[in-house]
Amino acid sequence: MKKTIALLAIVVLALSAPLMASGSNETLRFGTGGDQGTYYGFGNILAQRISSETDTKVTAVVSAGSQDNIEMMDMGSYQLGFVQSDVMSYAYNGTNLFAETGAIDGFSTVAALYLEQVQIVTLDPNIKTVADLKGKTVSIGSSGSGVYYNALDILGAYGITESDISPTYQSFGDSVDALQDGKIDAAFVVAGAPTVAVSTLASTHKVRLVSIDDEHIAKLLETSPYYTPYTIKSSVYGTDSDCQTVAVAAVVIANNTVSEDAVYDFVSTVFNDKADIAKSHDKGNELDLTFASSVTNVPYHPGAAKYFAEQGIEVPTN
Predict the structure, then answer these.
(1) Could you tell me the CA-to-CA distances from 10 to 4, 17, 19, 307 in Å, in that order?
(2) What is the pLDDT of residues 201-213, one digit of tens each?
(3) Cα dihedral sign for 247, 248, 249, 252?
């Protein structure tokens, strides 16, 4: 009789365990960006927070950024990834960066977290406007990267083409090193400000940020509506004045194979704990539910939609 009761108890526990368990018990690799960029710094903090607060374990991985994260996710190497909102749109629709490979649509939106500013960085006091970049040696991001297309967009608004400058194709860290060594005149950096690489440069040199004027911002928005006007305050890098520029959204996406529970763990932890996250990284101060749910060009993952619905917000899903 005792053996029968014991066996029945084991069966009951086995059947009830899934109901009592919380979280997904999944382990997810989170593609971020270079180790001197905001994606990795902020992504690592989010990964640690989610791993400690839920049964979903997230590991932030250094990567080559938006395009790499999407491609690695498509191959199954990453389950989560940071992407620029414009690059996400390129992939989903098979344009620009993804024109040759075709559309990649096996991912969904998790949340838009903050804005990434287009930062045109220089140490040369004679470079005051984008027009002054003509004939200069300028880093415009890794070839084919999101930064590269952002640089071409900005230059194009001023009637400047790639052949009008001496382009180099470098990462944030390499661009800063090249600026410091006098090998280039300016560099495009697209990341949340303050960006570690630029802050490091500003600690030893007088950094200048090149503004985009109202006329050319308006011209840019006519053809590229995914940009948002933005002002980088002088206090961010200790510049002489505020910098007027544009920004794109930094969005987290998930492979469609990731469970609803795992994505729910991610979103709920990020937004329920945003006050504590802000103590560890400045970007935590920008977390906002309205902005997070504002993506319209790529459907949201069911796990994200579930969390937003609990907050009274409806988002588009497949």
Answers:
(1) 10, 10, 15, 34
(2) 999 999 999 999 9
(3) negative
The strand pairing partners of 115, in sequence order, are 249
- The DSSP code for 142 is S
H/E segment holding residue 255: strand 243-255
Give the C-alpha distances (Å, rounded to integers) separating 248 from 85, 96, 216, 227, 305. 6, 16, 16, 5, 22
The residue among 263, 128, 121 whose CA lies nearest residue 196 is 121
pLDDT in tens, 204-249: 999 999 999 999 999 999 888 789 999 999 999 999 999 999 999 9
Distance CA 248, CA 85 (A): 6
> Do residues 291 and 112 make contact, with C-beta atoms less than 8 angstroms apart?
yes
**φ, ψ for residue 24, nearest 5 deg:** -105, -15
pTM, entire model: 0.80
Residue 60's CB is within 10 A of a number of other CB atoms, namely 23
Chain centre distance of CA 201:
22
**What are phi and psi for residue 125, nearest 5 degrees?**
-65, -15
| Beta carbons within 8 Å of 86's beta carbon, 6+ residues apart | 146, 149, 150, 224, 226, 227, 248
